[in-house]
Automatic annotation (TrEMBL):
Residues 155-220 form the HTH luxR-type domain. Keywords: DNA-binding, Phosphoprotein, Transcription, Transcription regulation. InterPro entries: CheY-like_superfamily (IPR011006), NreC/VraR/RcsB-like_REC (IPR058245), Sig_transdc_resp-reg_C-effctor (IPR016032), Sig_transdc_resp-reg_receiver (IPR001789), Tscrpt_reg_LuxR_C (IPR000792), WalR-like (IPR039420). It comes from the Bacteria. The modification 4-aspartylphosphate is found at D55. Residues 4-122 form the Response regulatory domain. Coiled coil: none annotated. The keyword Phosphoprotein applies. CDD domains: LuxR_C_like, REC_NarL-like. Pfam families: GerE, Response_reg. This is Response regulator transcription factor.
Length: 228
């Protein structure tokens, strides 16, 4: 199965280099390039790529806002955004995760790792490991205990739909547990663990595990340091 990729970066050299690298892979198809967020949005709506490799800082509409607009458009629900960054702007990376990005990768990464990252995101997985996501959230999203969201807030209403087991799964995912870890901790099969995670994602409107971690911290279910 071919993965259709859109490369977005305001630097022509990076666009061309990344496009050539990905285009050389037989299972990847670079369908277009964009120099800013506005152009990216237009091409995403026209070309419907599977994965958008998105820079953060660009003139005009930046990558974070472009990612948010992709994420809230129901017609683009299948489009995944992978943030391309220098890793020097971790706070912006977390903002991008809030906006709906499925992960991030550095501009100086190994070519093979970049190819694998695109495939991983297309497969519906978060590029970030649970532990890496948790480190970012702990450092930048919240610095202390959070009050529970009000029942009439969007997050509060979504949380109210979770079963006790699903709420437990959410806390464990935020603690860095993989599906295999969940299965072992809860004494269930890996398939059942994955089903629980998918149901929690659906109820909270999360694209991937990274957004589940963010939701758990915003809901006050876990605190920096990993305590519940």
């Amino acid at each position: 199965m071919t993965t259709r990729v859109l490369v977005v970066d305001d630097q022509p050299l990076i666009r061309q280099a990344v496009g050539a690298l990905l285009g050389a892979e037989p299972t990847l198809d670079v369908v277009g390039e964009a120099a800013d967020g506005d152009e990216a949005l237009a091409l995403v709506r026209e070309l419907r790529p599977d994965v958008v490799l998105m820079d953060i800082r660009m003139p005009g509409l930046d990558g974070i806002e472009a990612t948010r607009r992709i994420g809230v458009d129901p017609e683009l629900a299948e489009v995944r955004v992978l943030i391309l960054t220098t890793f020097e702007e971790d706070e912006n990376v977390v903002r991008a995760l809030h906006a709906g990005a499925s992960g991030f990768i550095g501009k100086g990464t190994d070519p093979d790792a970049l190819v694998e990252a695109v495939r991983t995101v297309h497969a519906g997985e978060s590029l970030l490991s649970p532990s890496a996501t948790r480190v970012l959230i702990e450092r930048y999203v919240r610095s202390g205990p959070m009050p529970a969201p009000s029942a009439d807030s969007a997050l509060g209403a979504a949380l109210a739909t979770l079963t006790d087991r699903e709420r437990e799964v959410l806390v464990l995912v935020a603690g860095g547990l993989s599906n295999d870890d969940l299965a072992e901790r809860l004494v269930i099969s890996r398939h059942t663990a994955k089903t629980h995670v998918n149901r929690v994602m659906a109820k909270l409107g999360a694209h991937d595990r990274a957004q589940l971690v963010i939701a758990a911290y915003e809901a006050g279910l876990v605190r920096p340091g990993g305590s519940a």
